[in-house]
Design a protein that fits this description.
Shape: globular
Strand order of the largest sheet: 3-2-1-4-5-6-7
Radius of gyration: 17 Å
Distance between the termini: 37 Å
Number of strands: 7
Oligomer: single chain
CATH superfamily: NAD(P)-binding Rossmann-like Domain
Number of domains: 1
Number of helices: 7
Length: 248
C-alpha cells in the first residue's frame, strides 16, 4: 500500500447516502477505485454511473451488511475487479433512538445486527486479504455516542461503544501484518440517520437539534481521506469530531 489515495482500492458499506456516498465521491475524485455496498441497488448503481461517466473508477455491489456472505461477496468482488483491497470502510449504521422503557426490541436487534455484526462481517471479509498482502487499512465508524451516553440513546450508544472496543482490539492484533486501523466518531452530521427514528416525538426533537448545528457529510469524507492519505508508517487510530456548535 502506497502513500496517498490515488490508485487505492476502497470498499465502502452504507454507500447509498450520507457519509458513505460523500466519501465515495471524495475518494473517487482523488483517484481511488471505490467499491460501493448498500441494500438500495438503484442508489449505488446511479452513483457508480455518475462516477464512471466522469472517468472515475467505481463498482456497485448490492449488500446487506447483516448477511456475512453478502459482505464477503462485496470484498471478493473488489479484489476480483481491482486486484486487491487497500481500505475497508465499515460505515453502514442505524440510529432508531428511543428510551429503553418503550421496549423497541426489534430496533435493538436491528442496531446490533447492523452496527456491530455488520462491522465484524466487514473485518472478517477484508482481514484475510490484508494479512496475505501484509498491508491494508480498516476504518470503522463509531459516533460521539460511542463516547457519551444520553437518555433515549442507550442501545445506540452501546453499539457505538462496541465499535470502539472492537477497533482497539483489532489495532493490537494486526500489528504483525502491517495493517492500519482507524475508528472515526462523528458528531452531528447531515445524513438519513434521523429517518430511522420511529418514535415521532424523539425524531422531532432530534431533528430540531441537529438541524441547527449539523455539518455536511463531506466533513466526514475529508476525515476519512486524511487517515488514508498519511504515509504507511503513520497509523491514525482514532478521530472524534463535532460541529463547533455541538455541546454534547
Amino acid at each position: 500500500m502506497s502513500e496517498g489515495i490515488e490508485n487505492k482500492v476502497v470498499v465502502i458499506t452504507g454507500a447509498s447516502s450520507g457519509l458513505g456516498e460523500a466519501t465515495a465521491r471524495h475518494l473517487a475524485a482523488r483517484g481511488a477505485s471505490v467499491v460501493l455496498g448498500a441494500r438500495r441497488s438503484h442508489r449505488i448503481d446511479a452513483l457508480v454511473q455518475e462516477l464512471t461517466a466522469a472517468g472515475l473508477k467505481a463498482k456497485a455491489v448490492t449488500t446487506d451488511v447483516t448477511d456475512a456472505g453478502q459482505v464477503q461477496n462485496l470484498v471478493n468482488t473488489a479484489v476480483r475487479e481491482f486486484g486487491r483491497i487497500d481500505v475497508m470502510l465499515n460505515n453502514a449504521g442505524l440510529m432508531p433512538l428511543a428510551p429503553l422503557e418503550r421496549l423497541k426490541v426489534d430496533e435493538w436487534d436491528q442496531m446490533i445486527d447492523v452496527n456491530i455484526k455488520g462491522v465484524l462481517y466487514g473485518i472478517a471479509a477484508a482481514l484475510p486479504y490484508m494479512k496475505e498482502q501484509r498491508s491494508g487499512h480498516i476504518i470503522n465508524v463509531s459516533s460521539v455516542y460511542g463516547h457519551v451516553v444520553d437518555p433515549g440513546a442507550a442501545v445506540y450508544c452501546a453499539t457505538k461503544f462496541a465499535v470502539r472496543a472492537l477497533s482497539e482490539g483489532l489495532r493490537k492484533e494486526v500489528k504483525p501484518y502491517n495493517i492500519r486501523t482507524t475508528v472515526i466518531s462523528p458528531g452531528a452530521v447531515t445524513t438519513e440517520l434521523l429517518e430511522h427514528i420511529s418514535e415521532k416525538d424523539i425524531q422531532h426533537d432530534t431533528r430540531d437539534f441537529v438541524s441547527k448545528i449539523a455539518v455536511g457529510p463531506d466533513t466526514f469524507a475529508r476525515t476519512v481521506a486524511f487517515a488514508i492519505n498519511e504515509p504507511d508508517d503513520v497509523d491514525i487510530n482514532e478521530i472524534l469530531f463535532r460541529p463547533t456548535a455541538q455541546p454534547v
